[in-house]
Amino acid sequence: MHQGNRQMDFSLPPEIETYRKRVRAFVNDRILPLEDDPKSYDEHENIAEPVLKAVRAEVKSAGLWAPQVPKARGGLGLGIVGMAASYEEMNRSIFGPACFNCAAPDDGNMQVLEKVATEAQKARWLQPIIDGAVRSAFVMTEPHPGAGSDPGMMLTRAERRGSKWVVNGRKWFITGADGAQHFILIARTSDDPRKGLSSFLFDRAQPGWRIVRRIPIMGPEEHGGHCELEFDGLEIPDSDRLMEVGDGLKLTQIRLGPARLTHCMRWLGLAKRSLEIAAGYVRERQAFGKALAQRESIQTLLGDAAMQIEIGRLLVMKCAWLLDQGDRAKKEVSMAKVQVADVLHKSVDTAIQLLGARGYSKDTRLEWIYRYARQARLVDGASEVHKMVLSGFYMDEGQEFWRWGARPAALGRSTARAAD
């Protein structure tokens, strides 16, 4: 689906296809071999910092760095379609996205800051993330009875005192917080049901907050883990407020839609890697006189998983195309999120079943992917919440739920951008 092309086309523009192939080759030649060296891992089963620093330097030298970022800021300026094609290739390795500066939460934070921050804020808060000099975190989720899937339950408050905002409250499961320098915070600034939240920027060094704990989780962790945070009088200058007062919910919508989709792009890479491992094994493994790959039961498992991956890829590419046209694609992103979260689990579970004890061991990457995959149905909205959203769309739209193409208003915005 070509970016900017409103005809149905499932090929990639030459420049995106070239980049995708270069990413695949780099992952294959440089990153995948690192997975077999125990020295490549930190204590949380992610790529160790010295190794990551070296690989990132190579990525930059190869001209593959930050494809999602505008060229003027040091990236490659790919649209969402280009990101979908390349992120899938990056996450063929469990280490891949971080090496290209395309891992969550930095990826989503860079994109939203590029869209909504002032030029001064971009220079102070965004550019160091793009350059790989610092990491970032998005601070929204709260312990019960605070905000989770429903941001309207937000309890953390920011009160204006002169030219500053004073923040008090508690957050948890904040991805990357233990390694972050720059933070985007969502807090309540009024009791207005629609305009009651606002967004702010703060630095790790500012007083008035602390990391209570790094929460242990089932799976391997992103750099900086998943943390519980406490705010006790954090002061934030009004100049570090993002957007207008009351636009916090709007900011989360701007950020989380594309961020959910980039999760899906990366998960498809892990799903494909799982089947790749399984296919290599069943081709070689002999049982009862023939290779496992010749068994109909094995073929059925592999064929079904491969088909489900392709369904997920098509949904992701449809969303990517719609977003590139200026459509919010909220409905389509929810569909992709549910499908790809399920298919990631199905693919790695199938692969483990086919490899038997070897798949369950740490001799392959499958058990790592399996533990990581379980979070997919929870992060950025549980699958049940997305299905509830889809039900609402269907009840509102009826037969138009299955419309072809972008919404007319979105096409108009795309045309206006092209004219500019």
Structural description of this entry:
With 420 residues, the chain is α+β, with helices and mostly antiparallel strands. It contains 13 helices and ten strands. A hairpin with a 2-residue loop joins strand 2 (157-161) and strand 3 (164-175).
- The CATH architecture classification of the largest domain is Up-down Bundle
Radius of gyration, in Å, reads 22 Å
Beta content: 5-15%
Which stretches are poorly predicted, pLDDT < 50 over at least 5 residues? 412-420
Question: Helix and strand succession?
Answer: HHHHHHEEEEEEEEHEEHHHHHH
Domain count: the total is: 3
Tally of helical runs: 13
| Termini separation | 22 Å
- CATH superfamily (homologous) name of the largest domain: Butyryl-CoA Dehydrogenase, subunit A, domain 3
Which fold name corresponds to the CATH topology of the largest domain?
Butyryl-CoA Dehydrogenase, subunit A, domain 3
Please identify the oligomeric state: single chain
* Helical residues, percent: 40-55%
Overall, the morphology is globular
What characterizes the major β-sheet? 4 strands, mixed
Q: What is this structure, in a nutshell?
A:
This protein is of the alpha+beta class. Helix content is 48%, strand content 14%.
Please give a handful of descriptors for the protein shown:
single chain; 4-stranded antiparallel β-sheet; alpha+beta; Butyryl-CoA Dehydrogenase, subunit A, domain 2; 13 helices
List the helices and strands and how they pair.
Blueprint: H1 14-31, H2 49-61, H3 80-90, H4 96-99, H5 106-116, H6 119-131, E1 136-139, E2 157-161, E3 164-175, E4 182-188, E5 197-203, E6 209-214, E7 226-237, E8 241-242, H7 248-284, E9 286-287, E10 290-291, H8 296-324, H9 330-355, H10 357-360, H11 366-373, H12 383-397, H13 408-419
Parallel strand pairs: 1-4
Antiparallel strand pairs: 2-3, 3-7, 4-5, 5-8, 6-7, 9-10
